[in-house]
């Protein structure tokens, strides 16, 4: 029993040596041994299935800052206010002024205090407002709003934050063009690694 | 936990008591055994309100079981809030976090997902948009890696009665197993123009983060297992993104979709959240750091620590050190409030981007003092004080990516208290 196991080990060691010399014979660097398990990989493992355009469309709900992904439809602040009062005010306060779910609209910071971070002063892209409301709100019924409702709510919050006027129509063309006050607040990570403390 | 009583009440009524249970009798109320339809006695949990006061060597023990249980004497538990639940670092040993004590952070609860119905869609800037189910993912070449996972909002202070769990319990460590994302990238044929990808969860927040593609090619794992078994629901069952060394939020759980893109999506979690003030820049003051992925090196002493008091004599100071940028190189411990530092022993294995246990033997003579630890990682980064962080980031520094040296006050009567840090 012991002897045959020992034998198997020897065979294993021999295989390793053969592989090793094989790669060297092919002119590859010694470091190629570190990738020994990936070298014989097939071009494809043949796992999974091709995604259909229909199923991609169903799941692909993200909105980019350039507006890619925005659906048809439009909204206004007036229509949004009614929906907000009904579906959002319980958590975010009347007109988004604050509640257990956080403040969305800044009413002006008390003197000597830092302003709360809100859509008007801390959200760099208006498209994020649409994206986030549609995917995650209302908190107790996420994903229940129609695209039209989301456009209306987005228009309401942008108007309440004094970013668009109350007549503005928000849709796939106009939303990406809204310039947010916080647009230039953000910089990519400026930490560079190494000993420096940043 | 009071669940022990409930466990007994909620059990299916045993059709027939086993001989062992009868032998154990009323005195071993802690043992629960049922008989299956195959007339085989199985242990379904060691529970009950009391253990026998008599000699366990004088009666048979519990028969073998299907799943292990924790001794009723062990009370380690997570500490939940509305949005997170913290790991009891002060109650743990070694480098691994038991899966059921791994911290939780989620944005609208833990979803219940049927793995048979869960799929991962990869699309966007790829040659072949594909859908993979769990069985597919498990058939790909796999990888396992022990690494920490830490929420970037993981520092609390402000009062003395805080334990390691309270101060930084949003870090845990597991062995994660899955398929390398690079393997899947290869399979779908990621186009060279793709520079970012969006990761989306299938929870009620349908949470999304944009990730630079180089992390996907480098060491990202599509993980389906944790510490040898399927992921826990709280950690993303049935499949999650795992990005070694990167802030917890980017490790999207309940992963359902990856979309390759040539720009970030500027999702809510990478703009209005998980961003922090920078002191001054070439572009003026009042700027905020975005896409700050790497977790800087950090350590904390987990023993002695509040709430557990100490007695004079020999004390093995124990703790954890880690860095999202590489391996831990050394940990220094001070027992005189930072005046002098001594090299701690590091416990093997010292892994890349992993919690590393450290120890330092100290004789406490009963005098009041402060003890603290300071890690250095292999990039040469030395864990800063809160003062150094303030100096670097300015007085408005937020709550993200805070990794200061954390001190414990040792009182004359043996009480161990957090030394609160103040900066506002």
From TrEMBL, chain A:
Gene3D superfamilies per the UniProt record, alphabetical: Cytochrome c-like domain (1.10.760.10)
One term of GO molecular function: electron transfer activity
PROSITE patterns registered for this protein in UniProt: CYTC (PS51007)
SUPFAM superfamilies per the UniProt record, alphabetical: Cytochrome c
The entry's keywords: Heme, Iron, Metal-binding
Cytochrome c domain sequence ranges: 75-161
Protein name: Cytochrome c
Source species: Spirosoma endophyticum
From TrEMBL, chain B:
UniProt KW keywords: Metal-binding, Molybdenum, Oxidoreductase
GO terms of molecular function: heme binding; molybdenum ion binding; molybdopterin cofactor binding; sulfite oxidase activity
Domain of life: Bacteria
Record's protein name: Sulfane dehydrogenase subunit SoxC
Cofactor dependence: Mo-molybdopterin
Moybdenum cofactor oxidoreductase dimerisation domain boundaries: 292-388
SUPFAM superfamilies the UniProt entry points to: E set domains (SSF81296), Oxidoreductase molybdopterin-binding domain (SSF56524)
């Amino acid at each position: 029993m012991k002897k045959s196991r020992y034998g198997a080990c020897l065979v294993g060691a021999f295989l390793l040596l053969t592989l090793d010399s094989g790669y060297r014979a092919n002119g590859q660097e010694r470091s190629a041994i570190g990738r020994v398990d990936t070298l014989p990989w097939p071009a494809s493992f043949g796992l999974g299935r091709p995604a259909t355009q229909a199923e991609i469309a169903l799941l692909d709900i993200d909105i980019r800052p350039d507006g890619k992904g925005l659906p048809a439809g439009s909204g206004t602040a007036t229509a949004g206010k009614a929906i907000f009062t009904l579906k959002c005010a319980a958590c975010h306060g009347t007109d988004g002024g604050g509640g257990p779910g956080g403040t969305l609209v800044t009413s002006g910071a008390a003197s000597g205090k830092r302003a709360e971070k809100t859509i008007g002063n801390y959200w760099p892209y208006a498209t994020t407002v649409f994206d986030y409301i549609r995917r995650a709100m209302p908190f107790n019924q996420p994903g229940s709003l129609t695209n039209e409702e989301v456009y209306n709510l987005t228009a309401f919050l942008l108007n309440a934050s004094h970013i668009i006027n109350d007549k503005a129509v928000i849709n796939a063309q106009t939303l990406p063009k809204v310039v947010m006050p916080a647009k230039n607040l953000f910089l990519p990570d400026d930490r560079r690694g190494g000993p420096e403390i940043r | 936990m009071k669940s022990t009583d409930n466990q007994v009440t909620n059990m299916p009524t045993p059709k027939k008591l086993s001989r062992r249970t009868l032998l154990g009798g009323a005195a071993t109320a802690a043992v629960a055994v049922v008989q299956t339809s195959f007339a085989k006695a199985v242990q379904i949990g060691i529970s009950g309100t009391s253990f026998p006061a008599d000699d366990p060597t004088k009666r048979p023990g519990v028969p073998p079981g299907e799943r292990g249980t924790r001794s009723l004497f062990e009370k380690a538990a997570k500490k939940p809030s509305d949005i997170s639940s913290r790991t009891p670092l002060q109650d743990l040993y070694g480098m691994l976090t038991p899966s059921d004590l791994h911290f939780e952070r989620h944005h609208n609860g833990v979803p219940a997902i049927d793995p048979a119905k869960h799929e991962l869609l990869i699309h966007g800037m790829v040659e072949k948009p594909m859908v993979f189910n769990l069985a597919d993912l498990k058939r790909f070449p796999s990888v396992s890696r022990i690494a920490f996972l830490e929420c970037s909002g993981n520092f609390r202070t402000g009062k003395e009665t805080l334990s390691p769990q309270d101060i930084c319990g949003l870090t845990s460590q597991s062995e994660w197993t899955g398929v390398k994302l690079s393997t899947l990238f290869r399979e779908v044929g990621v186009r060279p123009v793709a520079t970012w990808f969006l990761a989306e969860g299938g929870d009620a927040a349908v949470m999304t983060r944009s990730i630079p593609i180089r992390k996907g090619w480098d060491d990202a794992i599509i993980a389906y297992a944790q510490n040898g078994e399927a992921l826990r629901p709280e950690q993303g069952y049935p499949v999650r993104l795992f990005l070694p060394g990167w802030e917890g939020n980017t490790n999207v759980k309940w992963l359902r979709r990856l979309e390759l893109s040539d720009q970030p999506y500027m999702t809510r979690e990478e703009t209005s959240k998980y961003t922090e003030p920078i002191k001054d820049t070439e572009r003026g003051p009042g700027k905020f750091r975005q896409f700050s992925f790497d977790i800087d090196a950090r350590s904390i002493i987990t023993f002695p620590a509040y709430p557990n008091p100490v007695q004079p004599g020999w004390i093995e100071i124990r703790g954890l050190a880690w860095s999202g940028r590489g391996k831990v190189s050394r940990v220094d411990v001070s027992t005189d409030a930072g005046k002098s530092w001594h090299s701690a022993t590091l416990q093997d294995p010292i892994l890349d981007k992993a919690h590393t246990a450290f120890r330092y033997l100290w004789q406490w003579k009963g005098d009041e003092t402060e003890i603290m630890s300071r890690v250095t990682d292999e990039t040469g980064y030395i864990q800063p004080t809160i003062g150094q962080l303030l100096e670097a980031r300015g007085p408005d520094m937020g709550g993200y990516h805070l990794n200061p040296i954390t001190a414990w006050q040792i009182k004359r009567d043996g009480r161990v208290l957090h030394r609160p840090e103040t900066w506002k």
